[in-house]
Amino acid sequence: MKAEKVYFPDDFLWGGAVAANQCEGAVLEDGKGYSTADALTTGVFAEPQIPPKGFYLKEEASDCYHRYKEDIAMFAEMGFKAFRMSIAWSRIFPKGDEEEPNEAGLKFYDDVFDELLKHGIQPVVTLSHYEMPLHLAVKYGGWADRRMIQFFAHYAETVYQRYKEKVKLWLMFNEINMMLHAPFNGGGINKKAEEMEPSELYQAIHYQLVASALAVKIGHEINPEFKIGCMIAGSPHYPLTCRPDDVLEAQKKDRESLFFADVHVRGEYPGYMKRLFREQGIHFEITDEDRMLLKHTVDFISISYYMSYCATADPEKNILAQGNIMSAVKNPYLEESEWGWQIDPEGLRYILNQYYDRYQLPIFIVENGLGAKDQLVEQDGTYTVEDGYRIDYLKKHLLQVSEAIADGVPVMGYTAWGCIDLIANTSAAISKRYGMIYVDRNDDGTGTMKRYKKQSFYWYRDVIASNGAALLEN
């Protein structure tokens, strides 16, 4: 059935999203130190040795560090109300365990926030988006060490104090549940998840959850008007069949992510996790102070959403579909992107309702988009990308967001992932593009860095200007 009405509220925060390590470049400029993201150069969890061997695309990335004014002007032309970005922790504390911050790094983000606010764009700021100072990973073993809690708290307090009049929406850890699947990417622990003892892995997860709650406490004390949220990688699981075993398996898989939101929202470990720890002999340190800190809960939930999965208890039917870091059972009813990611717009409506039914908190979609091998073409004397496939993807997902709002879900906003072309986090390549703005750069480093507006740029501009009504047009 074709939608006949859209339901976006007047204060809906339309915008785009990036991560510092994927767009800024300037890896060591103005006092910045190396981050764990700089050790991810091959698509695998490499030994954290810097500098990387050979050519390294992230050194310049999309060069947003030097071109942020140009880029923000283009975001403003699209009509952005919000811009989800991250602060590079190692730009503020190059090693991570210093007492005094790097003033040049603080000044850079002052300038970025000022530029955004000048254009009427609200910053939505992530404190740690798949990066932390590499020194903390090498010296302390990342989030396997309890001392990380205080290092993160010191960093959070520093930036909260500095930007308390400029930034009101904060997120702590990007896709915090991915620590369960990618310990180096999510926590600076130089092991794969399957190489870690469960007690060791959950101890690190616990430290990060405590640090997150402490950051909420500090933020609310510095400015009670702050709205501070958690950020979860959202991928709902459908039972592959209506067999009860498959339904229970889907519930079990969903809880792997919901657990992180449960702690952030409810301030304690849920009963199903206590049972898991008990039955699997998982033991880790939780102090009374930890329990008190966990009571400092978030104001809203933010999610990324790219795809849904299926779940089955039948090992013969475990045909995996590739996703963002983790994989799961394929849904036979869905199409796939050229990277094998299954496309399920209705899944976004489903998960928005699932999270609101469970938590009764506002929800912010801070990542959603389609990666593709875009081709720059000449058109009417200029260059563009004819990315109707991206427009189709975004349109179908946004219509489902509208349906969720009609269902009664208070959706705060939508920031499309990679609104300007970015360098991939793990593979350090740019050939998989998400943006509405094309960056003339190639995987081998060639290109002018010039920006070009894709067809989706103009389409998204019209959607925002009409507060979603343009989604109803053919």
UniProtKB/TrEMBL annotation:
It comes from Anaerostipes butyraticus. The active site is at 367 (nucleophile). SUPFAM superfamilies: (Trans)glycosidases. One of its GO terms (cellular component) is cytosol. Keywords: Glycosidase, Hydrolase. Pfam families: Glyco_hydro_1. Coiled coil: none annotated. GO terms for molecular function: beta-glucosidase activity. GO terms for biological process: carbohydrate catabolic process. Belongs to the glycosyl hydrolase 1 family. The keyword Hydrolase applies. This is 6-phospho-beta-glucosidase. The keyword Transcription regulation does not apply.
